[in-house]
Design a protein that fits this description.
Layout lengths: L3 H18 L6 E6 L2 E6 L3 H13 L5 E4 L4 E2 L11 E5 L10 E2 L5 E5 L5 H14 L4 E6 L4 E9 L6 E9 L4 E3 L4 E3 L17
Parallel strand pairs: 4-6, 7-8
Antiparallel strand pairs: 1-2, 3-5, 5-7, 8-9, 9-10, 11-12
Length: 198
């Protein structure tokens, strides 16, 4: 007897295999999010400058800071590519395309004009399902940072219990890294419609 859940599992495994062999055009970033392939154009300058600013504030002697690293989420048909991944230097594996989510301390996504829903809902659940201890969204549309902590639940029901929102210009305590993030110089998008997330 056919069961929808069995078919979905087969489809997701097949999509994961297809995704691994996919070669996107130059300048296109590709992620697998719960069985769906998502393609994005290269990021905006504001986006890239924020990523650089965050990276520069995380001490390299203690933390590995990786940009656009493919992430492996256990028991998920997902291979997100966060804007920044932070993990202890002694936790960094020697090689491999996929970085296991269990090794990560912090994941950072900078919201683009088209990624709002993915960053605030789908990726929030995916990173929580992967037990990433802290997920930071830097949002140049709303000029705010949202830090999610304490992942709970599994798969589609996974989420973070802790949430801290800080406006650009105010310091953001990143206790998990032992630093306070200066958000003063984070740029914003102009002429973009505000949203209601988180």
């Amino acid at each position: 007897m056919w069961r929808p859940t069995e078919m979905t599992a087969v489809d997701e495994r097949g999509m994961t295999r297809y995704f691994e062999e996919l070669e996107p055009p130059e300048g296109v970033r590709v992620e697998l999010l719960r069985g769906e392939i998502v393609m994005m154009a290269s990021p905006d300058l504001v986006h890239n400058m924020i990523v650089e600013d965050v990276l520069d504030q995380i001490p390299r002697k203690r933390w590995s800071r990786l940009q656009t690293q493919d992430v492996d989420i256990v028991d998920e048909a997902s291979e997100p590519v966060p804007d920044l991944v932070v993990l202890r230097r002694d936790a960094l594996p020697g090689s491999g395309r996929l970085l296991p989510s269990g090794l990560m301390t912090l994941v950072v996504e900078v919201v683009s004009k088209t990624s709002v829903i993915r960053d605030y809902t789908i990726k929030r659940s995916i990173y929580a399902a992967g037990r990433v201890p802290a997920y930071l969204i830097v949002d140049p549309i709303m000029a705010q940072c949202v830090l999610f902590t304490v992942p709970t639940g599994d798969r589609d029901d996974a989420d973070y219990q802790g949430q801290l929102t800080v406006k650009f210009g105010d310091p953001l305590p990143l206790d998990i890294l032992g630093i306070e993030l200066d958000t003063t110089d984070f740029g914003t998008f102009t002429g973009v419609r505000p949203h209601r997330y988180p």
